[in-house]
């Protein structure tokens, strides 16, 4: 292994360590609470939506679960404005994570040949549908997709567009839930669950079709 290869491995290990650090930080509660974020937003006045975009961007880049950010957006801004600022914020955060992963780990993770190399080239050309499908699946961690995508050949523009489109359905459901958290009936909770499940089924179907092709 030459010096350049070793440098790539070192950067990849550094990336893994950073992601692990972020995960531990979130798991141990080193994240702001609802009251703290509400205080930042109230203090910002007219610039509050921009402040929340920054909060979402920072949170999603360090692996704060997207449903948490979405519900918080609904609590603070209501369903529609909340959805807008959350989509903008998590897309920006996804690009930060993607850029970090691409810069530190892409060279070491790039497959040279074989099936993985073909998949990598396919993502480079047609990654939009795959990103949208993954964003529609609630069981796939948002942050994991961000950092993993940076290691693949998917183009940054396709990644950004696929993220912004794919997160909309679940985000609207979560912000609506956040805005009505204390007043939702059992029927509304069931409807919210169905609204999350339907896009997930669409995402699963898209991935199956892509895999079959």
Summary?
By secondary structure, this protein is mainly alpha-helical.
Provide the structure class.
mainly alpha
Portion in beta strands:
under 5%
Secondary structure tally, helices: 10
* Rg estimate, integer Å: 18 Å
Helix content: over 70%
Shape: globular
Largest sheet: none
Membrane topology: Multi-pass membrane protein
Subcellular location: Cell membrane
Main location: membrane
Pfam families: VTT_dom
Explain what you see.
This protein has 213 residues and is an all-alpha fold. Helices cover 82% and strands 0% of the residues.
Sum up the structure in keywords.
213 residues, mainly alpha, 10 helices, TVP38/TMEM64 family membrane protein, transmembrane helix
Map the helices and strands:
Blueprint: H1 3-27, H2 34-44, H3 48-61, H4 66-77, H5 79-109, H6 115-136, H7 142-150, H8 156-166, H9 168-179, H10 186-212
Helix pairs in contact: 1-5, 2-3, 3-4, 3-5, 4-5, 4-9, 5-7, 5-8, 5-9, 6-8, 6-10, 9-10
